[in-house]
Structure formats: C-alpha cells, structure tokens
C-alpha cells in the first residue's frame, strides 16, 4: 500500500518513530501504522458497538435499595 501524507502527519510519524525507538528499533512506518490502526479500530469498535476490553464489574450482592 502506498499513500501520501501531509507535512503535519509526517511530523507526527517522525515523533512516533522517536518515541517508539525502544519497541520498534528500525522505526518501520508499516509497523507503526499497524499499531495505530489496531488502536483506532479498538477505539471505534468500543465507541460504536459498546465493546469493552474488560467487562463491567457487577456487584456480588443486590443493593439494599432494590
């Protein structure tokens, strides 16, 4: 896949490459893109579909009010 990015996005990519140098030593843009898409997908799914990473904790006992 090839695509063109603007100057602001390029600056963000360079910043990410620097910040992720420990995890991605070669700064591979494809790896960074994959991580970003994975995180964005999880965020959008949870927002649109109500999917959560951890299920909500339900109380073990009913409340005294109910």
Could you explain the architecture of this structure?
The radius of gyration is 19 Å and the shape is elongated. The chain has helices at residues 7-19, 29-49. The protein has 66 residues and is mostly helical. The protein is built from two helices and no strands.
Characterize this entry briefly.
The protein has 66 residues and is mostly helical.
Order of helices and strands: HH
Query: From the alpha-carbon coordinates, what is the Rg to the nearest angstrom?
Result: 19 Å
Largest sheet: none
The helix content, as a percent range, equals: 40-55%
> Total number of helical segments?
2
Number of strands: 0
Strand content: under 5%
From the helix content, strand content and strand pairing, which structural class follows?
Answer: mainly alpha
Cα distance, first to last residue? 56 Å
The rough form would be described as elongated
Mean pLDDT, all residues: 88
Low-confidence runs = none
What labels would you give this structure?
single chain; 66 residues; mainly alpha; elongated
Layout of secondary structure:
Layout: H1 7-19, H2 29-49
């Amino acid at each position: 896949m090839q695509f063109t990015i603007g100057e602001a996005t390029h600056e963000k990519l360079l910043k990410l490459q620097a910040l992720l140098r420990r995890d991605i030593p070669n700064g591979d843009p494809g790896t960074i893109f994959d991580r970003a898409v994975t995180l964005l997908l999880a965020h959008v799914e949870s927002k649109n579909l109500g999917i959560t990473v951890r299920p909500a904790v339900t109380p073990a006992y009913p409340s005294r009010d109910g």
